[in-house]
Amino acid sequence: MKKVIIVGATSGIGRELSKIYSRNGWAVGVAGRRDSLFPEIEKEMKGKVYFKRIDVTAPESALLLKELISEMGGVDVVVISSGTGSVNRELDWSKEKETIDVNVSGFALLAGTAFRYFCGNGGGCVAGISSIAAIRGGDDAPAYSASKAFVSNYLEGLRKMAIKNGFPVSIVDIQPGFVATNMAKGEGLFWVAPVEKAAQQIYEAIGSNRQHAYITRRWRLVAWLLKVMPNFIYDKI
Ligand SMILES: NC(=O)c1ccc[n+]([C@@H]2O[C@H](COP(=O)([O-])OP(=O)(O)OC[C@H]3O[C@@H](n4cnc5c(N)ncnc54)[C@H](OP(=O)(O)O)[C@@H]3O)[C@@H](O)[C@H]2O)c1
């Protein structure tokens, strides 16, 4: 039986993705801080499910991930979906810091831990949920877009490290546009994808070993526009 761990699986994209893996016969390791939700999540799952309370900002989170892997008797795929972000035009430092702690430090610690595990244990896949926001700096939530640029760039670094050294680790960078979860806040949202559709496309992208995927696929167009848009236009929209 194939095994997946999803960090940040107590709600939103991660929770939906857990259900899809479970329906498809995978053993699933569910991680997140809100352990009070674990019994409810267990009822949604079809097969074997493991739970671990992990706060990615805590130094012991790496140890807890390794503990979960060992309780599951190994793992094939680790998806890091944990993330946070706030509209923060006032640059309130506590909000900026929380975003950096979760999306940058927490992400790097767990992605690195999973990567090293796979290097020493026959290989596997590390997938990270970045964002379309990674492409350009954002004025509504500067730390959020910067943190997602870190996620995508870090994943690219891990991929290069795996390829150059012959490590049997594949790396998948998922960049969603808007998805209908608690995280999709703010004004001017468009093309908001149902979480079920987004999670299904993420499952397929990881399964087909894609290096990168926009979710949903139409966000490829927005990504392209953001990449080619000159600063004098981007700064005003
Ligand atoms: N929704 C969108 O429009 C959108 C677009 C692009 C990218 N994304 C990315 O998609 C990912 C999932 O977000 P979502 O939309 O599904 O929102 P969500 O429902 O708020 O899910 C966020 C998940 O992250 C976990 N998390 C937050 N802080 C954590 C911490 N310190 N330690 C461990 N887990 C933590 C939460 O679990 P606990 O609270 O239980 O810890 C929760 O399971 C995020 O990385 C987000 O940036 C979302």
List keywords for this structure.
Rossmann fold; 237 residues; binds NADP nicotinamide-adenine-dinucleotide phosphate; globular; 8 helices; alpha/beta; seven-stranded parallel beta sheet; 16% strand
Notes on the protein architecture:
- The chain has 237 residues and is of the alpha/beta class.
- It has helices spanning 12-23, 38-44, 61-71, 93-120, 142-165, 195-207, 219-228, 231-234; strands at residues 3-7, 27-32, 49-53, 77-80, 124-129, 169-176, 212-215.
- The protein has a 7-stranded parallel β-sheet, with helices on both faces.
- Helix 2 (38-44) links the parallel strand 2 and strand 3 (49-53).
- The radius of gyration is 17 Å and the shape is globular.
- The relative contact order is 0.13.
- The mean pLDDT is 97.
- Residues 8-14, 32-34, 54-57, 81-85, 102, 106, 129, 131, 176, 178-179, 181-184 line the site of NADP nicotinamide-adenine-dinucleotide phosphate.
- Residues 8-14, 32-34, 54-57, 81-85, 102, 106, 129, 131, 176, 178-179, 181-184 line the site of NADP nicotinamide-adenine-dinucleotide phosphate (NAP).
Gist?
By secondary structure, this protein is an alpha/beta fold. It contains eight helices and seven strands; from the N terminus they run E-H-E-H-E-H-E-H-E-H-E-H-E-H-H. The mean pLDDT is 97.
